UniProtKB/TrEMBL annotation:
It comes from Arcticibacter tournemirensis. This is glucose-6-phosphate isomerase. It catalyses: alpha-D-glucose 6-phosphate = beta-D-fructose 6-phosphate. It holds the Pfam family GPI. Belongs to the archaeal-type GPI family. One of its GO terms (biological process) is gluconeogenesis. Transmembrane segments: none annotated. Pathway: Carbohydrate degradation; glycolysis; D-glyceraldehyde 3-phosphate and glycerone phosphate from D-glucose: step 2/4. The keyword Ribonucleoprotein does not apply. One of its GO terms (molecular function) is glucose-6-phosphate isomerase activity. Its EC number is 5.3.1.9. Residues 55-210 form the Glucose-6-phosphate isomerase prokaryote domain. Keywords: Gluconeogenesis, Glycolysis, Isomerase. InterPro entries: G6P_isomerase_prok, RmlC-like_jellyroll, RmlC_Cupin_sf.
Length: 263
């Protein structure tokens, strides 16, 4: 990541836009990217017939330094990277459709996720439930270097807040990751739709298929007790203290912190 407004993730990986994806540097492993297309997510958008980039984002699950490959498997940790196209989806920002993490066979829990923004501007949107009552809803605005943690069981979506720039981020995940879309699909999207104003500022529109809720817009928390060190890449934290993020595959290790969690 060589751009002046980007964050050094702590290992040699670079996002590219044509074709969309990543270049892995010396000593770094990673798979071919998978693509999510506009047609894949239309039913979850404010306007399912909108126009926008054909490829919305590229995702590579399981990347890192080659020297850590076995250690990551042993700890049941996985590092994923995603890069979004610039532009808009009709009135909406480029975004994911939203999901809940499945119950992991490793821990018996839905698992948390640790996001780190590398390039662009992001909103990590999350709601407590994917049911008729979405519970507490948060829109966490984040810039390069910011970390946002999504707790177990919460529905969440990642949104690019700047249509002029791609969005790129990394995330710590459980190796037994999986996504549940049922509740989001049943409600035709998340509880609050983001939409750009004429000045490209995000405004929020309530999804009427849910019961009335309040949306709290905020900056990321400090996440005391969860191993985050401001300004230090989350991969570097793992490299220095490999067991720091064991609560990702084993959320029960931090069970008390998930109650009344505020992102």
């Amino acid at each position: 990541m060589h751009k002046s407004d980007s964050f050094n993730p702590g290992f040699a990986i670079h996002s590219i836009s044509n074709p969309m994806g990543f270049l892995y540097g010396e000593g770094v492993f990673g798979p071919e990217v998978e693509y999510r297309r506009l047609d894949d997510i239309r039913k979850s958008l404010l306007n399912p017939r909108c126009e926008g980039p054909e490829i919305v984002y590229a995702i590579a699950m399981d990347v890192g330094k080659t020297v850590h490959r076995q250690l990551l498997k042993d700890l049941h940790l996985l590092f994923g990277v995603v890069t979004y196209a610039a532009g808009k989806l009709g009135e909406e920002p480029v975004r994911s459709q939203g999901h809940v993490h499945k119950i992991s066979s490793y821990s018996g829990w839905s698992t948390p996720e640790i996001y780190e923004i590398w390039e662009g501007e992001a909103v990590i949107y999350m709601q407590e439930y994917d049911e008729d009552n979405p519970g507490r809803c948060f829109a966490v605005f984040a810039k390069p270097g910011d970390v946002v943690i999504v707790p177990p069981d919460w529905a969440h979506a990642t949104i690019s807040a700047n249509p002029e720039s791609p969005l790129t981020f990394g995330a710590w995940c459980d190796r037994d990751y999986g996504f549940v879309y049922d509740g989001i699909k049943r409600h035709k999207g998340i509880a609050w739709f983001p939409a750009f104003s004429e000045q490209n500022e995000i405004q929020w529109r309530a999804n009427q298929t849910y019961k009335r809720s309040e949306l709290i817009c905020k900056s990321p928390n400090r996440y005391e007790g969860l191993g985050i060190q401001p300004g230090k890449p989350i991969y570097t934290i793992f490299e220095e203290e490999p067991e720091t993020f064991l609560y990702v595959p084993k959320p029960q290790l931090k069970a008390g912190l998930w109650d009344n969690f505020e992102p």
